[in-house]
Design goal:
Layout: H1 2-17, H2 23-35, E1 42-46, H3 52-57, E2 63-68, H4 71-78, E3 86-90, H5 93-96, E4 102-108, H6 117-126, E5 128-137, H7 146-157, H8 169-178, E6 182-187, E7 197-201, H9 213-221
Parallel strand pairs: 1-2, 1-4, 2-3, 4-5
Antiparallel strand pairs: 5-7, 6-7
Length: 232
Amino acid sequence: MVAAVKFWDRFADRYAARPIKDTRAYDAMLADAAGRLKPTDRVLEIGCGTGSIAIRLAPYAAAWTATDFSAAMLRIARAKPAPDNLRFVLADAEHAVDGGPFDTICAFQVLHLVDDLPDTLSRIRAQLKPGGLLIAKTWCFADMGLGLRALFLALRAFRLFPRANALTKAALRRTVAEAGFVIEVEHVFGNNPHGPYTVARNPGGAGRRTAAAGSVESRINGAPRSGENNVE
């Protein structure tokens, strides 16, 4: 994990400066996530990066705790204007879930980076209230063509890309289900088929709302947009 922390600390400024490639898909995904939140929700975000998603979605919840293991990423996040109910905490994925139970746990572009995905999912579920949601977007590298996979391996050899799990969408779906979640949504926003957006419920208790994307999307799209592209 030390190597991963050093990687993201080193690339934090460059990462934050990269533009979002598909703003329409990004906004649609955030609108869906916002529509699943309630004003009373306690939300935990794992791997928040430089905080762009947390800043945009925190107003739809009562409290939002955004965590990341990179101090450099959090330095950038804390420098941005943010809602009063949002706090940034330095923590890795293994320990970020401490402090539950939560109504919703978000993991945008992070599950493919954890050392032990089944263990991380089990920890997430243990800290979710019955009926609570896991909202995630995950890169599935193993579904990519051979050329792209070779490119990422080459970039990693030159320390220009982090270590990542070679997941397929089928393997991701199976691992989420084996952790005890009920998958309610699997969707691809935009033209990249290798980054599924997943909404999974912790069984038990009252069911959660479905996304009311129409009204929420108009409010999301009116919010300021940062340059971070941790969801593409």
